[in-house]
Structure formats: C-alpha cells, structure tokens
Give the backbone structure.
Amino acid sequence: MKFSHALILASSLAFFACSGDDDDSPTGAKAGYDCTVSDGVKVAYPTVSEQFKIGQTIDVVFGTTIDDGYRIVFKKNASDAGLDLLDESFDLTGPADGKTCHTVKVKLDAEKGVEPTLTGIIRVIPYNKQNKGNNSELFVVKE
C-alpha cells in the first residue's frame, strides 16, 4: 500500500515538473523581467534606483524585434551622447521575437570613461535602426 502511494506521488511530481514549461512564456520571465516589445527594443534591466559601482560588471537585459548587431552605451542622462561599453557589437543568440529576453554583460569601466555620477542610463542601440534603440531606467553609479 505504501509503495503505491509513493509511486503515485513520484509520477505526479514528474508530471508537474515537466508541464510547467510553457512555449508562449518569454525567456527570462522566470527571472521577473518583462522583455515584451512590439516594435524596436525594450530594456528591462537595469531598473530604476539600482546602484552600481565603477568597475562592476552588470547584466543588461532587453527584448527586441530587430535582428541586428547592437551597441551598448552608458549615458549620464537622457541627453548625454554616451560611451560604448563594448569593443564589438553584441549579436543576438536567440530570436528577435519581441518576447525573448537577451542578456549582455557590460563593465562600468573607468578606462572607457565611465565616471561616478548621480544617475546613469544604459542604451541598447541596433546598428541599422538606431532610432529603434531604448534606454534603461535611471540608476545610480557610485565610486
């Protein structure tokens, strides 16, 4: 009797573990990021009030509908021209379907000109459709 209960419990757990993966849910949604965008780029992380230090490596998370190479730019504010954080373009490794989250690691590098500011923004810019780029929310950059 106990063996049959254990067998039922084990098969139930296996069923629920396999059935939780939904093809319609965006990649990265489990991490709490909403990368859905209908046209262009949406930067999901960094979010408002995050705090980073000069020299820290951070994950930039974004969704896009544009299959292109990308510039990742640090800006002190929305009107700043910005500084490229990568030496080469970032190329997507997954689909540009407007619901998949893409992650790129960047370093807030003083050697590239990043300075401690009260605020910072990461802008993700497609090379061939620069007007479709998007800014992250404002975050804090400390020494």
